Each structure stands twice: as structure tokens, then as C-alpha cells.
Amino acid sequence: MLSVTPATQQTSLTQQTLHGIQQTFQHLINQHAQTQQEARQAQRWQQALYNSFAVWDWEGSTRRLFCSEEWTNLLGLPHDTIRSVRMMLKRIHPEDRPVFKNTLKKLFDGSVSKLDCEIRFKHAWEDYIWLRTRARVTDCTDEGTAQRVIGTSVNITARKKAEEEIYDLCQQLHNSEVLYRELMKNASDAILIVDKQDDRIIDANLHASDLSGYSMKELMGMERCQLLKNPDGGSIPCQDKGLIRDMLLISRHGQQHIVDISRTTVHVSGRHLAQCIIHDVSEHKAIEKRLQHLAHHDPLTGLPNRILFRDRLQHALHKAQRNNTLLALCFFDLDHFKSINDSFGHDAGDRVLTCIAERLEKTIRASDTAARLAGDEFVVILEDLEHQDLIQPIASKILSRINQPITVARQQVRVTSSLGISLYPLDTLDSDTLLNQADTAMYRAKKNGSGLEFYTISEDLDQESLDLWPITQKRSE
User: In this protein, which residues make up the domain named GGDEF (predicted)?
Assistant: First the structure.
């Protein structure tokens, strides 16, 4: 028998479908506005960094190399002169080019994670200058190839010339001691002369005294290991000629300086002496650390960003598999966050986000990880869970802390959130699927008004598709 649906019922279904599509498009528009705000903020941080330091930034997707104005100034070139790796290689000394090119290739294909070398670059109006260049992969593909590499350079020409002059001069020490003394006195780096027989300092320059905080008299006769230490606790060898990096110089007051030490063996009147030229790289290391932090943390809240979150999630999954424990992934966002921005302005919205981040860090355990993915979306990785019953009390505590009122523009604003939870290995073994499942559960909690929901595999498939579609669209933007 043929069944005919009444026209009024068809109209009702059509209206419901149109209403659902309108809601979906509005959600996409709101998310796009938040994404643009995040991009502008990240661009401001990046621009401030590029204006202050000699930085180069290689983008894997476009194969384009961006060099900051400070970096091109090192070579006496106009800004935006170097726009590709090939153009950079052309300015490197022919003797240094193969080694740098080979190391850079290993960095790009994922064989190594960082680069640290001293190479000569052709200056615009001078001869070649020495640059110490350090670089690190800050983003990579699933196959391990580099997607983004950020590097810094510092001019070490004066130091290299001083090392060469001092080395040559040391060979003639017995004929020109007065000249050597004058060179040591005016050297820009700290210099120590150590008797290799008992490993004690027998001479030093004023810069060594200034850096260490010890007087010249106090340095004389001091054991080298009292002043210079290996970060891993071992001794620093002084028998071999060469450069050792990232050692520690401990000052009189306990301050630790990160130093590079260039060593040379000198034979004078039958004595075997070690000359140590000490270059303080603490400031450069601090810049590197800052760059590394900016690459892996959200500039507004200081929480791990999406890149660091994915790395920590992978480590947490491996750990849970190895220890046979549970892992819970909590995904939440703030309800009606757009209305806060619209009513009080984006500065107030930023204040709410930073307050939420602070509450998260104070609420979760030391073994857990909180991260901000984008906009008002946050995730928390709960590790080392022996029983499933432990998860809901922890998640409820997180929600309770987040939902406390926040003072915005001298007004108490009630903030609420919806939180979804997915479990490893009960729901899935894959990190991306685990994130999508938590996302799905979060939107079900938002729709039901329950505040907190666990992912259930028996959810209605049509509803699950409707929940996932706008989120998938948002993340592909």
C-alpha cells in the first residue's frame, strides 16, 4: 500500500532542517571570527620577535625562507633580500657550504632535530664574516619531515679572529710574552691558562675575573673544576684541542653562566699548559629558550598550544599502553563566550581566557596536561588512572573551578562550560579519534545542558554526524 506523508508534516521537517543549517552556519561564522583574532595576536607576537632578533624562519609548505631585518643587517643587506634556502647558501663560503647544506638537509628530512654550526657568510661590503647559527624544527609532519624551522644567528667574527690571533701568538709565547699579555688584557672573552699537571689556573685575564666574580689573586692556583663544570656533573677535559659547547661557569656568588670553551695545548719551557678561551653564551641561550617557548605555547595564556598538546598526548598514550593504565581526554569550551566579547570587548574576553587557564593549572594534578587549542577551546589530558571511577570526580572538580564567577570590567560574570570525555583504550587507540570523540561528547553535553558527558559508541549516528560536521569544518580552516 502506498503511504503519503501529509503536506503539513513535510513542511515541519523542512523548517527543522533549515533551522539546523542556519545554526550550523552561525556557528561557523563565530568560529571564523575567533580564528582571525587568534591569528592577529600570534602575528603581533611574531612581529615583535622578528623586530628584536636575528631570526630566520623556513616554511615547509611554501618552501619560503623569511629573514628578519636584524638578520639581513648582519650581512649588510636590505631587508627581504634572502627569500629562499638557495639564496642563503649562495652567500656561504664555498668551504663551509657542503657541511651546512648537508646538516640543513638532515634537519629538513627529520634525521636531526636541531642545527648548531659556525660558518662564514659573504658580507655586502666586507669580506666574509663568521656567524654562529642555531636552528630547531618547531613543527613536523606525521612522517617526521620538517614543516617549519626557526633559526637564530649571532656574529662571532671578533671571537674567531681573537682565537686565531691568540693561537698563533701562543706558539710564539717564549719570544713575545709582552705582546701576549697585552692581547689577553684586551680580549673580549675570558681566558684561563691551566697547568695540565695539577689542573690549576696559573694565569687569567681581567675579563675572566669580571665574569667569575673572583679577583685575579683568587683565581691564581684555583682548581679548574671549581670554576668550570659540565652540566651532567662530569669533568671537562682539557687535554684535547677543540671547542666544547654549553658548559657551566660557576661565579663566586653561585650564578651559572652557559659558556663555550675553545681549548688549545701550549708547550712553554717544558710545561704542558691548556689555554681556555671562554665565551659567555647565556644571553643567546635565553633567546633560544624564549623562541622554543613561543613555538610551543599559547602567547595569551601560556598554556601548551596545539603542537605541544599533540606531542604530549602521543607520549601519554605510549605511557598508558606501557603501564596498562587508563587515559582520559577532557575537551571543553565556554558557553556563550562570544557574548562576553560583544558586551565587554576583546580585552575582557582575553581576561576570561587567562583566568580559566590559571584555574586549570591550579586544579589539575602535576602529571596532567592542560592546553588551549583555539579560541575558547581547552583540553586536559588525565594520566595514570587505575580505575574509570576516578575520572568523573576529577572532571567535575575541573568544571566546578571553571564555572566560578569572574570579575570583568568591575562586574561579576558567570562563566559556564560544557565538557566531553573520551577514554583510552576503552573508546579508541588513536589520538585523533580520541580528540574527535571528546569533541563529540562535549557538544552532546552542550546540547543536553548536562555540563559533562562521556563519549558513548552507541550514540545516534545521524546526530553524531551533525555534531562533528561544523567542528571538522572549523579545524580545516
Answer: 325-460
CB-neighbour burial class of residue 106 (10 A; exposed 0-12, middle 13-18, buried 19+): middle
Question: Does 257 score more than 50 pLDDT?
Answer: yes
Looking at residue 233, the DSSP 8-state letter turns out to be: S
Please tell me the least confidently modeled range out of 26-40, 254-268, 354-368, 440-454: 26-40
- The residue written with cell numbers 628584536 in the block is 52
Average confidence (pLDDT) over 308-332:
93
Integer Cα distance of 300 and 39 in angstroms: 12
Check residue 235 and report its DSSP letter: P
Cα(155)–Cα(463) distance, integer angstroms: 60
- Residues 334-355: tens digit of each pLDDT: 988 888 888 888 888 899 999 9
Q: What burial class does residue 419 get, using C-beta atoms within 10 Å of its C-beta: 0-12 exposed, 13-18 middle, 19+ buried?
A: buried
Find all residues with CB under 8 Å of 293, minimum gap 6, and list them: none
Residue 403's CB is within 10 A of a number of other CB atoms, namely 16
pTM (2 d.p.): 0.56
What gap in Å lies between CA 373 and CA 368, rounded to an integer?
A: 16
What's the grid cell of residue 426?
Answer: 576503552
Question: Residues 384-420: pLDDT tens digits?
Answer: 998 888 899 999 999 999 888 888 777 888 888 999 9
Spatial strand order of the sheet with 128-140 comes to 64-67, 55-59, 146-155, 128-140, 114-122
